[in-house]
Amino acid sequence: MIVGIYHRKLIFFSLLATLSFFAFNYRDNLLARQTIEADVDSVQADTIFASPQDNYNISAISGEYLLSIDLLENGSIKILNREIKEGIKPRKDYDELRYIVLDKKFEYYSKAKIVVNLPKPIIRLQEDPQIIAVHGATASGAKITEDGMAIEYYAKDVNPNSTVTIVGYFPKGYFKLPVTKVVSGGIESVSPIAWLSIITILVVVSAIILAFMSSKRKKGIPLDLKEATDVLPATIPPAVVSVLIEGRVGSRAIMATLIDLARRGFIDIYNRGSDFVIYKKETSAQQRATLLEFEEILLDKIFLPSQKIADSQDVEERASRHLFSRKIALTYLDIYKYASDLGFFAQPPARLHLKYRVFGILVFFVGLAGYILYALFGDEPKFLLLLWLVLIAEGMMIIKTAPLITNYTPMGRQSIVNWVRFRNFLSQNEPFRGSEDKFSEYLPYAVALGVESSWSARFIQANFILPKWYDAIVKIDSVEGFAKSLIPIIDYIADTFDVSSEPLVR
Fold this sequence. Notes:
Layout: H1 6-25, H2 27-39, E1 64-71, E2 77-79, E3 82-84, E4 88-90, E5 94-103, E6 109-117, E7 127-134, E8 138-144, E9 150-158, E10 163-171, H3 179-188, H4 192-216, H5 238-246, H6 251-263, E11 267-271, E12 276-280, H7 285-288, H8 293-302, E13 309-311, H9 312-320, H10 326-341, H11 349-377, H12 384-401, H13 410-426, H14 437-449, H15 452-457, E14 470-472, H16 479-500
Parallel strand pairs: 1-6, 11-14
Antiparallel strand pairs: 1-2, 2-3, 4-5, 5-10, 6-9, 7-10, 8-9, 11-12, 12-13
Helix pairs in contact: 1-11, 4-12, 5-6, 5-10, 5-14, 6-14, 6-16, 8-10, 9-16, 11-12, 13-14
């Protein structure tokens, strides 16, 4: 039995939460950058950070401006005990300080001096410090103090429309930057050509994998046969027949199993009109010995250990007790195992489907991460976001297609031919001539093969006798009435359980 499904779910949800946190953590930075792009046309907008709300002028001389900035070892800026974490931005060859000091403050300063106090001495920067003064202001230069503990920036003629920005290029290793800032800086340093190359390769590779998967879908399976046979091809569980034809476990496998369990005397079903009740019958040890493992698990899912009766509310509560039902997952996996042990599949379908699903999930999250990162840090052109969306769509298509990929053995292919012929017999458009007991005997297989309506129609003219395992609040005296009464109940239970099963197993 395969175990260890739930920890994967935890990893996926944790990854999604991490990506969301990462995006929101940098949202303010993005909004600030976009605002400055609209206001400043002479400075590179992708390297600017929001300036303080106040100008923090500590000069005692009227008409002059003096600002003292403290650079912390973690790369943050501190002004009058206010810390601004976006201070230093990592680049490829250096760590950059680029900070708007004055931005249209509606005041005039004949002189402006900005002192940046450093966390430790420095002899020289990677490049000479710069002060950028635009819209009427004039830059007067910048220098490192003799003790190496500060950088002084000078400007003059700062008018109400001016913008003054200080720039410093620090050697790598001078600051101990947080990991998140290092990562974001590395991402921002990726060129548009590199982004285009990465996403193009990912999209093309995923498209090739998707095309390969599509070509493998039931390749060579002759599902359009016209021949029919009235002989049951093999005495195998109806659920396995459903897997053989569909290539995966679905709600029909559960529907067929429930009807088969009822026919074999393990459960009774009662239709109360707006509700239903399932009764767990008393059985002998000899009867219980005939139960397959997946049938036992399914019964345990419907009934609690001491429970003998279950209605629709019980089914819903049992299905919704967990986000995904482990028992239904184990039921599906055991059906796959049973079919594989019979030699129908070259590879266990559950493992094959899981492999492609995991790949699809990986593609989806890579696309999602790429979209978020490029939206936050990527340069133009923004149309590359469309390619990340294409990658996300490919991931979803791979996940959707994965359960349809099945690798049959020659024995499995021949068995499919035999069961397709039997399906053709069940769905023949003519009255059935033979024992009426065959209706109940073949009904689970008709459901598994998707032709229960056609099979029921063949008995419309027969003298219908309601099976002992089924009853309803209204009188049922025809096979048509029986099918309309039973199938919705079985379909509801199967769909409820199918939705609650593990997505990776489905």
